[in-house]
Amino acid sequence: MKYLHEYRDSGLARSLLKALQKRDYGDRSLRLMEICGTHTVAMFRLGLRQLLPPSVQLISGPGCPVCVTAVDDVDRALWLAQQPGVIVTTFGDLMRVPGSCSSLAQEKSRGGAVRMVYASFDALQVARDNPHKEVVFLGIGFETTAPTVAAAMLQASREGIENFSVVSMHKLLPPAMKALLDGKGMDLHGFICPGHVSTVIGAAAYEEIVLQHAIPCVVTGFETLDLLQGLHLLVDQVLEGKARVINQYSRAVSWEGNPAAQKLLGRVFEPADAPWRGLGVIPGSGLKIRKEWQFLDAASRFAIPRMESREHEGCRCGEVLRGAMTPPQCGLFGKACNPETPVGPCMVSSEGTCGAYHQYHPED
Amino acid sequence: MSKSLETLNGIVQLDHGSGGRATQELVQKFFFQLLDNEYLLQRNDSALLPWAGGSMAMTTDSYVVDPIIFPGGDIGSLAVHGTVNDLAMQGARPLYLTAGFILEEGLSLEVLGHVVRSMAGAAREAQVMIVAGDTKVVPRGKADRLFINTAGVGVVPPGIQVGGQYARPGDSVLINGTIGDHGMAVLCKREGLAFDREILSDSAPLNDLVMRILDGCPRVRVLRDPTRGGVATALNEIARQSGVDIVVLEESLPIEADVAGACEVLGLDPLYVANEGKVLVFVPPEDEELVLNLMRNHPRARKGVKIGEVTQEGAGRVTLKTGIGGHRVIQMLHGEQLPRIC
Questions:
Q1: CA A169, CA A151: separation in Å to the nearest integer?
Q2: Percent above pLDDT 70 for chain B
Q3: Which residue, of A343, B116, B182, B303, is most buried by count of CB atoms within 10 Å of its CB?
Q4: Terminal CA-to-CA distance of chain A, rounded, Å?
């Protein structure tokens, strides 16, 4: 663990920051979107927003998998948690996300069999340890986590573990980025592309977006110097009228991505239309389990009823996720909606935009 | 305050035990309101009670850590250290402890022996006696192997007045070493995570260190051990109790490289990770050098360092100044960062 300090050198960081502050932006106002929730949090933790010149605005995007999970999907997970003989396993972030009238954490407190796991393989272990129960893993996440879920499913199949299944709520980021650009009034000038997702899909995955929309994309890391260099590379392109994909995070991300992970993904899942909270159904933006693995698909193992889901009135998570408004502009922010009693998913997740604002800059 | 408890559907959730905001709400609504008395409402690690012309400190604590044996300690030594430290944070000299054991049917007697021997060793080192106890056994599944509840009493030497309510603008905030060690040691052990070196808990008695500090500088204003909820939560509590704002300098926070790395991997903030052998010391600025010297001459505080200061009277806001000159608010822990670390 020696690589952290080098990327946090505050002397170097201050000079990069100064250079950004001193640039001539003319009368331009640059709206740059960081897609990924980890970037949002990293920037808040640094206090970067208030140090940038007024001409450079950072807009938080839909890159927190918990936040974009549709209420419908949460309600389905809650239904599963209420079934006798079923253990629902999930990453911690999803525990507190409110569905229409409850959350997994509340179901757990009431005695529901909900277990938090750190990895899909932990869920598989729960299945091995409880052969007389049905163990369902809630597959949530982007291209980063989906291959690990695919790997767990293949392992379950190899071992003949019959009591394990997965709800695939996985989502793909490039289609969501395109949907954002196709939407009206977004007026974005550049993307800070996600670091972790790109380790799997590769920097090349953004070429199509650049070609179609002439918008600069910079794949960026998460440390202080990564973020500042990423911003420089974006600002340079915008001011010079260029648009291409640049890979700032080359120590982790290659142009082609991770072929082994991509192969796993393709073997188990196929792209499908998927509902995003706040963005609606985006074509080809989800991953459904392929037919040949249907026996591991919770959606076919359980007769999950149609949900009559409803989002909380007044919750503006949708607009926050599209970058159309900032959390403090929402009437519920910090009042009815706070980390103890979150109304919308963006307040729940540690990487949600509302959660980050509330945690680090509650009065901005 | 009551609103969020009601909206939690009238049941206890794990958040209520996190040491953060939900815990505070629960304690406020049930324990402070229903058990209301002047000593309980001091809201410090232990209660100061009038005694023989001076004062006596009394505390109680329960230990449910999982796993019960972890790198650098176990539930037995932790119980002694935690209780001794709660007393020391009031400036008291810990004298006598009690220990109640709740044992789950099926617990190995070898494990029990290990834990009790470890308690005995910890009590010897801290120079306290465990003078009374209680044993209960519950059926399998009704407890998780072994829980310990303790109580402790100590006396406060005359002329000492420390407490979370005494921080004043200008005070320097010091700490006796690296943060986050205990929480990460327990978490890495429980989750089977291995890093370059094994992370050891910092679990240790602080009464001797505190005594040296108070002997050398009786003007110390606040002592607080940042256990559950970590340094962030402890600073928030003090800021509120004293009605002051505190600024912490990110670059001055001592964090072991392995702990920082493990926190990175798990997405945790070391500021919220528990410590069991650390003390936050608030001193008037003119005493900063003196106290830092006292600390660095003690084996439990070789890496003693200043991490921030009290800036002004205020609403109890704690802010962190980042390496690039930005700032962010440090709130109390909400939600549960790590389950059962003490």
A1: 16
A2: 95
A3: B182
A4: 34
Test mutation, A46, A117, A357, chain B, max B CBs within 10 A: A46
Angle, in degrees to the nearest 10, between helices A146-159 and A120-129: 30
Same domain, B147 and B247: no
Of B3, B267, B324, the CB nearest to A17: B324
Q: Does B193 touch chain A (CB under 8 A)?
A: no
**Cα A320 from Cα A329, distance rounded (Å):** 9
Report ipTM (2 d.p.): 0.76
Is there a single domain that holds both residue B120 and residue B174? no
Q: Between chains, do A1 and B257 touch, taking CB under 8 Å as contact?
A: yes
Average pLDDT over every residue of A336-355: 85
Last residue of a domain, one of B156, B180, B199: B156
Q: pTM for the complete prediction?
A: 0.84
For the segment A273-307, what is each residue's pLDDT rounded down to a tens digit? 999 987 889 999 999 999 999 999 999 999 999 88
Residue after which a domain boundary falls, among B125, B156, B187? B156
Residue B325: which domain range? 164-329
Q: How far apart are CA B325 and CA A50, in angstroms?
A: 10
Q: A347 to chain B: which residues are within 8 Å by CB?
A: none
CB-based contact, B322 to chain A, within 8 Å: yes
B10 at A interface, C-beta within 8 A: no
B214 shares its domain with B83: no
Q: Which of A52, A109, A231 to mutate to test the interface with B (most CBs of B within 10 A)?
A: A109
Q: Above 60 in pLDDT, residue B267?
A: yes
Q: B102 and B205: one domain?
A: no
CB-CB under 8 Å, A362 with B331:
yes
**Same domain as B324, residue B185:** yes
